[in-house]
Amino acid sequence: MRCYSCRKDGNRSYVKPGPEIRLYLRKYADGEIKYFVSNAPGSLAVQEPDRAATLRWPIEQCFEECKSNLGTGHYECRSY
Fold it and tell me: Using an 8 Å Cβ cutoff, are 16 and 7 in contact?
């Protein structure tokens, strides 16, 4: 669903609407609900966020297997 990001406007007590964002909700068979927020454009097909959300698990599994089987536990993939 499309939503608007809201931020507090300085020291004032009201909230100012910000840019349009997308909220993705997914309910699993066990009743667990997961969500994420995206700044994807409004023209993006509805299936794309679902595809991106379901691809995360195989990618994380791949990293875990590489760390344990190939000995890449010391390798940093991300930096801040």
Answer: yes
Tell me the per-residue pLDDT of 37-61, one tens digit each, with 9 for 90 and over: 888 887 888 788 778 777 777 888 8
In which band, very low, low, confident or very high, does the pLDDT at 76 lie, cut at 50, 70 and 90? low
Single-letter amino acid code for the residue at 9: D
Full 3-state SS string of the chain:
CEEEEEEECCCCCCEEEEEEEEEEEEECCCCCEEEEEECCCCCCCCHHHHHHHHHHHHHHHHHHHHHHHCCCCCCCCCCC
Q: What is the pLDDT of residue 60?
A: 82
Query: What's the start-to-end Cα distance of the chain, in Å?
Result: 30
